[in-house]
Amino acid sequence: xxxxxxxxxxxxxxxxxxxxxxxxxxxxxxxxxxxxxxxxxxxxxxxxxxxxxxxxxxxxxxxxxxxxxxxxxxxxxxxxxxxxxxxxxxxxxxxxxxxxxxxxxxxxxxxxxxxxxxxxxxxxxxxxxxxxxxxxxxxxxxxxxxxxxxxxxxxxxxxxxxxxxxxxxxxxxxxxxxxxxxxxxxxxxxxxxxxxxxx
Length: 199
What we know:
Helix 2 (134-146) packs parallel to helix 4. The chain has helices spanning 83-90, 134-146, 169-174, 182-195; strands at 5-10, 23-29, 32-36, 46-50, 62-67, 72-76, 79-80, 98-111, 114-123, 128-130, 150-156, 159-165. The protein has two domains: 5-14 and 98-195, no CATH class; 19-90, no CATH class. The strands form two sheets. Strands 1, 8, 9, 10, 11 and 12 form a six-stranded antiparallel beta sheet that branches. The chain is an alpha+beta fold.
């Protein structure tokens, strides 16, 4: 097994843009609005809500969204939502339009307030535009290859997850392959071959 580096310090932060700073495409279905951007990371900037019924997103605040035609729609307590939800509600597929970064290693140490991933076997050199769950699926496949517990860090512009896990039935259920694009699955399988890990 090839160890790329001994340590990676995990730092959690969010890059999510303010909803007010972007322009949005939209679908309005019975006064329930779905909004998304044209940015490369459009999957990270999806919102939904109503102009007539207040919900609890953003603590129930009224948020103004500028549409691509220059008009403004005011949503009452809108939600920041996922690309898989947008796909099921509208047919618009932005699942492979997320900024993501992932790191996979064999051990985890704590250095408050951050964690350290040790014996790194995979690390994205930079942010990638990909499926939101690319790092989760890559970690799952690497667990299968090395047949042992691993630690992985999967970060998107909306947040991150750091998990140390074994392969077990619960973890297999967690990785819902139905929400991954075929491009993502192919990328992961090619990366596994490229890493040339020992079974």
